[in-house]
């Protein structure tokens, strides 16, 4: 008799965890995504139209996630702005946002999509992780109401955050990070009142996460490494290869070497804005990287990394 689908999923997940526990390494993936942009970001669209655009991007990401999982990847990082693009105003990005709860609520959107407010993007990302038994890291937008008693509350009565989410191989939301250091054009977002130091444990090391411009500042970047002792940093980015960013591959590789951690860097791909350069970087240098300023194609990188680089005999 064939096992039921839930039982089969549990067996596959258990084998994946045991495999990771039995090894000092893990297989990581990043995907550099040529984002499908909305045609008009100067006036609000309907929620249905916003979701249609995001589903087009998630169709591409889902193929990359499946391919990474087929190659044995335990985790995949996708880029900043990878689901809806950029160049929004505060008003026009609103239809693309969802209310993202604190991961402490212990939620699997794929199996319980109606527990909170409608969250079709979180549901689909959760199912991608669950269906492929892989950690999925994505960048989306969070919205939170506020009121006049809050001195920082905006006139429209809400906070809007550039947000990274992580779903584990069961599809559970295990991490949520609000970008603190917004770049000059990100007027559609608020920054949190305090910088967040977000970490989570996996069978293959302790992970931290932050977004793009955050890497240039002590909080959260240096704090995660020097004080919280993470093994691997997840880094969704939309990195332009111009000052003050410098070239993505060289800078991110040097940062990983200087900090003594793995850095999983997933960049958006947009050649006219000089956005390219993703990689799997370690304290010993890059294991795999991609830099392409000539085409508009995405790229998946997959490689095996040390799960706890500080314990490696070759640690710098």
From TrEMBL:
Residues 31-307 form the CN hydrolase domain. InterPro entries: Biotinidase-like_euk, Biotinidase/VNN, C-N_Hydrolase, C-N_Hydrolase_sf. Residues 1-22 form the signal peptide. Keywords: Glycoprotein, Hydrolase, Signal. Pfam families: CN_hydrolase. CDD domains: biotinidase_like. GO terms for molecular function: pantetheine hydrolase activity. One of its GO terms (biological process) is pantothenate metabolic process. Belongs to the carbon-nitrogen hydrolase superfamily. BTD/VNN family. PANTHER family: BIOTINIDASE-RELATED, CN HYDROLASE DOMAIN-CONTAINING PROTEIN-RELATED. This is Vascular non-inflammatory molecule 3. It comes from Pelecanus crispus (Dalmatian pelican).
């Amino acid at each position: 008799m064939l096992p039921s689908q839930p039982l089969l999923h549990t067996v596959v997940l258990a084998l994946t965890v045991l495999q990771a526990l039995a090894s000092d390494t893990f297989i990581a993936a990043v995907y550099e995504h040529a984002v499908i942009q909305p045609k008009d970001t100067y006036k609000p669209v309907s929620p249905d139209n916003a979701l249609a655009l995001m589903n087009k991007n998630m169709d591409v990401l889902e193929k990359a996630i499946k391919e990474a999982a087929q190659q044995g990847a335990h985790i995949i990082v996708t880029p900043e702005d990878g689901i809806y693009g950029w160049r929004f105003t505060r008003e026009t990005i609103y239809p693309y946002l969802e209310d993202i709860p604190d991961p402490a609520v212990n939620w699997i959107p794929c199996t319980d999509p109606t527990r909170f407010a409608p969250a079709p993007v979180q549901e689909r990302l959760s199912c991608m992780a669950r269906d492929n038994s892989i950690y999925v890291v994505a960048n989306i937008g969070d919205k939170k109401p506020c009121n006049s008693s809050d001195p920082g509350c905006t006139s429209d009565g809400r906070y809007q955050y550039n947000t990274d989410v992580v779903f584990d191989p069961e599809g559970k939301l295990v991490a949520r990070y609000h970008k603190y250091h917004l770049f000059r054009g990100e007027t559609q977002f608020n920054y949190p009142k305090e910088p967040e130091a977000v970490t989570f444990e996996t069978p293959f090391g302790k992970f931290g996460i932050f977004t793009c411009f955050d890497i240039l500042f002590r909080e959260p970047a240096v704090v995660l490494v020097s004080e919280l002792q993470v093994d691997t940093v997840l880094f969704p980015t939309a990195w332009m290869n111009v000052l003050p960013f410098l070239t993505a591959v060289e800078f991110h590789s040097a940062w990983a070497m200087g900090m003594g951690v793995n850095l999983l860097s997933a960049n958006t791909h947009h050649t006219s804005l000089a956005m390219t350069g993703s990689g799997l970087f370690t304290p010993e240098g890059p294991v795999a990287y991609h830099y392409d300023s000539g085409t508009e194609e995405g790229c998946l990188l997959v490689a095996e990394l040390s799960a706890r680089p500080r314990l490696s005999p070759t640690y710098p």
